[in-house]
Design goal:
Blueprint (H helix, E strand, L loop, with lengths): L11 E7 L3 E8 L9 E4 L5 H19 L5 E6 L2 E3 L4 E4 L11 H9 L3 E5 H12 L8 E6 L3 E7 L2 E2 L26 H8 L1 H6 L1 H15 L16 H6 L1
Parallel strand pairs: 1-4, 4-7
Antiparallel strand pairs: 1-2, 2-3, 5-6, 8-9, 9-10
């Protein structure tokens, strides 16, 4: 993106989404319309400061394209956060970010007001404003990616819950699942939660690889994507 390409918009906000594998940022006008292409950066292994630098780069790219400062920076993160202080409290898919003062780091670096919140909570607010929940007072949504999140609105108000975990469906407790779905599942369940350990993207891939390894003939390569028209044993297991 070239410098100052979108300077005709005097009031705009910078939105940042930090997921389990990447960070994305873009500028938006007061009507919610996207003003710039999305700046994306992969999150390097290990998280912490390296993940911070990826976030910093994505934000800087959008600021360069706009040529002016935003009214505010809004940050959606796949973690339990203190939305008042802007600190990451618990982030099972973002290693090294527990206790990370993300909002203050962004504010100090870019000189803008910053608000930080759980990604599922911001997602349901967005759907209620401009998406599938527009005009509806009661909305529930689920987001499935590296993890499983979501949010709930009741009578037009965001439900946070006593610990700020309302809508985090992936971290809900569940019952027995019979045979272990894939090697290491019990430890994964303790790390990220019951439903997330079964149905999020990495869990589906782990299950597919496990089933493919069990189904393949001796000496054959494991390829969970090649299962035949009906999905074969891998598709049936998933």
């Amino acid at each position: 993106m070239s410098t100052g390409t979108y300077t005709s918009h005097k009031r705009w906000a910078l939105a940042v989404d930090i997921g389990g594998t990447k960070v994305a940022a873009a500028a938006f006008g007061e009507d919610g319309k996207q003003l710039t292409p999305i700046a994306r950066r992969p999150l390097p292994p290990g998280g912490g400061e390296r993940a911070w630098h990826a976030t910093e780069q994505a934000v800087a790219e959008v600021l360069q394209a706009m040529g002016t400062g935003p009214v505010a920076i809004g940050v959606s993160v796949a973690a339990v956060v203190d939305h008042e202080t802007g600190t990451v409290i618990w982030a099972p898919n973002l290693p090294g970010w527990q206790g990370f003062p993300l909002a203050s780091r962004l504010a100090d670096r870019f000189g803008s007001r910053v608000r930080l919140d759980l990604d599922g909570h911001l997602a349901v607010l967005g759907e209620a404003w401009l998406g599938a929940g527009r005009g509806t007072a009661n909305v529930a949504m689920m987001v499935v990616g590296t993890g499983i999140g979501g949010g709930v609105l009741v009578d037009g108000r965001l439900v946070r819950g006593a610990a700020g975990l309302a809508g985090t469906f992936g971290w809900m407790a569940g019952g027995p699942v019979g045979a272990e779905p894939y090697p290491g599942w019990q430890e994964k369940c303790r790390q990220v939660g019951w439903l997330e350990s079964l149905a999020a993207g990495p869990a589906i891939l782990a299950r597919a690889r496990h089933l493919a390894a069990r189904a393949k003939p001796p000496g054959a390569a494991t390829s969970p994507g090649k299962t035949g028209g009906d999905g074969g044993p891998v598709g049936s297991g998933l």
